[in-house]
Amino acid sequence: MRRIALDLLSIILVILFSCNSENTSTLNNSEALNQATLKVHSGTQLYPICVYDRWGYIDSFGKVVIKPIYEFADDFENGTGTLFIDRENLAIIDGGGNPITFTMITGSQHYYWDYNSEGLVLVYDKKTKKYGYVNLDGDWVIKPKFEGAHYFKNGLAAVAEKMNYHPDTNSDCGTPQPHAIWGFINSKGKYVIEPQYGTITDFYHGYSFVDHKIIDSVGNYVDEADVKDVRFLYYKFQFVHKLLYPKGRDITSNSENFINGYIVFKDIKTKKYGYLNWKGEIIIKPQFNNPTCFSEDLAGVSFDNNKWGVIDTNGNIIVPPTYDFVMRYSEGLASVKLDGKWGFINKKGDLIIKPIFDEKKKGITSYKFHNGLACVYLHDKMCYINKLGDIIWKES
Fold it and tell me: Do 190 and 166 belong to one domain?
């Protein structure tokens, strides 16, 4: 009996010790899955890290504030980030204040989170098997009732409440297949355009493609000839090709092609690249072997010697063709590749950080500075560096 009492006392002491030694600056899986709101004390900006294929966050000083024990962690954008706890649970991280707040969305599949989704997160509710929207506090703003849904764009989101069944010519023997009937709602969940379409795209610059036709933001049909903005026509490639191919031009399929008003295109005859404006007019003649999109009024381009340099918006060469590759500028610096290693140059072409870093890994699509730091790899280890090239954190 005494042995049992001692064992019970030991268990209680372990529990008490665990509670008292809880570190408020980190989370573990059980905490993340069982609490609705979690807080850590840190700065207002976090950066994702990966150690042994598990993800967490550091602050701007390189201190680990969320242990790398999670499925995945997104970059911070506009003060928020997304932490995937596991395949069915996520946390929306609000970095706008101190302490940082973690809002859990538990028991839901996370599909269409987008940082420009106007403060609403699209989730799939496993109980109802429907889609709905929550805010960054994790509260349902639009309850789950949709069979299909997109995130918000230009104040509207495409949703489908019901499915129609009819023969599908793409399926075997014309077997009846479910087809969504789509409409558009506003951020309060009210229909702006009633469900009536079989195929849709998100609204882009005030227009959407529905059933191979164009509508405006109130559902009126618009003639293609009245749509002058090439940015929208680019959104559906058959319209772009129809518009530009007769002129001997082809727009590249880079999703960032239209960000700054300078559109990469290829001359069909010469196979060289140049740039158009939003009206489809040539502003930089096709002369490059490969281009990047403009960023901070500069773009990386490659020449006949297969070396890359940098041009400005007038086509003037700012950095002579020297490098094996030049990425887009971010916060005044662009990553460059030379002899298999990566470094950074400024807008004058000065080599600010020597090319010593390895190729990108673990979901890092490009080396670029974001909120003062850049994620790079050195000797196959993830690192964060500042603009002086100092390593502030390195994977152990």
Answer: yes
Both 204 and 124 in a single domain?
Answer: yes
The answer to whether 368 and 349 are in contact (CB under 8 A) is no
pTM of the full predicted structure?
0.69
Instruction: Say yes or no: 96 and 124 in one domain.
Output: no
214-252 tens-digit pLDDT: 888 999 998 866 766 555 555 554 445 455 554 555 555
| Three-state secondary structure string covering the chain | CHHHHHHHHHHHHHHHHHHHCCCCCCCCHHHHHHCCEEEECCCCCEEEEEECCEEEEEECCCCEEEEEEECEECCCECCEEEEEEECCEEEEEECCCCCEEEEEECCEEECCCCCCCCCCEEEEECCCCEEEEECCCCCEEEEEEECEECCCECCEEEEEEEEEEEECCCCHHHCEEEEEEEEEECCCCCEEEEEEECCECCCECCEEEECCEEEECCCCEECHHHCCCHHHHHCCHHHHHHHHHHHCEEECCCCCCCCCCCEEEEECCCCCEEEECCCCCEEEEEEECEECCCECCEEEEECCCCCEEEEECCCCEEEEEEECEECCCECCEEEEEECCEEEEECCCCCEEEEEEECCCCCCCCCCCEECCEEEEEECCEEEEECCCCCEEEECC
CA 351 to centroid of chain Cα atoms: 29
Residue 101 has pLDDT above 60, yes or no: no
Co-location of 96 and 127 in the same domain? no
Q: Are residues 218 and 127 in the same domain?
A: yes
Structure tokens, 234: 């680019």
- Sequence-distant (6+) residues with CB within 8 A of 323 are 307, 308, 309, 336, 337, 338
326 found inside a domain: no
Give a yes or no: residue 253 inside a domain.
Answer: no
Instruction: Provide the number of structural domains found in the chain.
Output: 2
> Are both 75 and 97 inside the same structural domain?
yes
Number of neighbours of residue 114 by Cβ within 10 angstroms: 15
Q: Which residue has the higher pLDDT, 112 or 214?
A: 214
Q: Are residues 125 and 223 in the same domain?
A: yes
Residue 272 covered by a domain: no
Q: How far is CA 278 from the centre of its chain?
A: 24
Domain that holds residue 69: 24-106
Same domain, 29 and 98: yes
